[in-house]
Design goal:
The chain is mainly α. It has a domain of 67 residues.
């Protein structure tokens, strides 16, 4: 039996991913987040574990301010000029006040 896994839309890495794979996963995640912020696809809140088939809501359905801040940041990024993958701020960036 092969140790290769073939799951459509899922990246399976054994051990630590190399920089190329990690960069690719980051690019895919950022693109998906921006599409969800524009309502082009479904979204799942990683903190609240809530799914939103119609896309990212305008605020956290559980009332968490940190989630609402992240949502607002992602929506700003999504509706601004399309940023390069490297211009998307990671969660916890000191410039947006989110930890």
């Amino acid at each position: 039996m092969s140790d290769k896994r073939d799951l459509p839309g899922v990246i399976v890495a054994f051990g630590s991913p190399d920089k190329v794979l990690l960069d690719r996963m980051t690019a895919i995640t950022v693109a998906w987040t921006l599409r969800a912020a524009r309502g082009e696809c479904g979204w799942v809140c990683a903190d609240c574990c809530q799914s939103f088939p119609a896309g990212m809501p305008d605020e956290c359905c559980c009332g968490h301010q940190s989630c609402t801040d992240i949502i607002a940041r992602d929506k700003r990024d999504a509706f601004a000029e399309q940023p390069d993958e490297g211009n998307h701020r990671p969660i916890g960036d000191d410039h947006d006040g989110v930890r």
